[in-house]
Amino acid sequence: MIEVKGLTRYYGNLAAVRDVEFSIPEHVIVGFLGLNGAGKSTVLKMLAGLVQPSDGSVKLSGENIETESEGFRRHIGYLPEDPPLHKDMRVDEFLIWCGEMRGMSKSDAMARLPGVIKTCQLEPVKERVIQELSHGFKKRVGIAQAIIHKPKLVILDEPISGLDPVQIVEMREVLKSLKTECTVLVSSHILSEISQTCDRILVLHQGKIVADGTEVELRGKMEANTSFEVILRATREDVDKVLSEFAELKVIESQVLEDGLLRMLLGSDQDRREEVIKALVTSDIGVRMVKDAASTELESVFLGLTKEAA
Ligand SMILES: Nc1ncnc2c1ncn2[C@@H]1O[C@H](COP(=O)(O)OP(=O)(O)OP(=O)(O)O)[C@@H](O)[C@H]1O
């Protein structure tokens, strides 16, 4: 449905997005995950036709974004991080106006409105002036303006940011219901915000895709690497001497704790945990704790994936 190849964007000398490739079929909701500055907004703006790629192509149902720019945009709905709302308009008036701006007749936009109000759970505020609404409702009006013209692809940049826990639950329901009518791409820098909503997650780090899969597959990728955390009574230098015997072992994280102990997150393609611990103990290094990284939180999985790729 959407096919992205070799997508690259430079800002001066900075490669904000490098050689990004993915494709998404119809009626799937995909999460676009990355730390601040990873390049998410830049990719989303290129998909929305608002930023010109330095290289690469984007095709929607086989049509190229560059050659079919006008037609292409009619098939895209876009919510930027700050929703573009006319705050002095009523919700219903604003949405009909947005429909007309994207080429719908007023009567078509009016006919479409009740469905959009229902999908975005805006019934209680549909006749209210936008500036009087809570942050959560404003975000939902932002989604409603992105779908009023029945786009094939909806791109939502950080729709969950700044919402309170109740609004997050309501927003997840809104996002899930969107995929019945279109394909959805939603960005976030917090994995747990989108992991429950998305069918698939693309992890972006320093402008490149470093992982692509379901939440279970992303966890599996980490577990296959048998990452484990150790707390040691030793200096980093002493530990490095021991670890030099294990060429494939990567130090994912290393930190000296307040009490002088050394905490390390180690990863390897093969399971060498027992041999590593034995070698540490034999070298008189005190091993205070060994913990399987598989038991760590999902956020650590994400951090591990991005650190490994760094
Ligand atoms: N218009 C611009 N001019 C110059 N550099 C830019 C511009 N827009 C983005 N960048 C840089 O490109 C990189 C990627 O930015 P981008 O906004 O795409 O990341 P992001 O993942 O969306 O981050 P955030 O979640 O903080 O918005 C950053 O280093 C940013 O400073």
From TrEMBL:
A family per Pfam: ABC_tran
SMART domains of this UniProt entry? Answer: AAA
What terms describe the molecular function in GO for this protein?
A: ATP binding; ATP hydrolysis activity
What are the residue boundaries of the ABC transporter domain, all occurrences included? 2-231
Keywords in alphabetical order, please. Answer: ATP-binding, Nucleotide-binding, Transport
The UniProt record lists the keyword rRNA-binding: no
Q: Which stretch is the leader sequence?
A: none
User: Where exactly are the transmembrane stretches of this chain?
Assistant: none
- What InterPro entries does its record include? AAA+_ATPase, ABC_transporter-like_ATP-bd, P-loop_NTPase
Family of the protein in this entry: Belongs to the ABC transporter superfamily.
Record-given protein name: ABC transporter ATP-binding protein
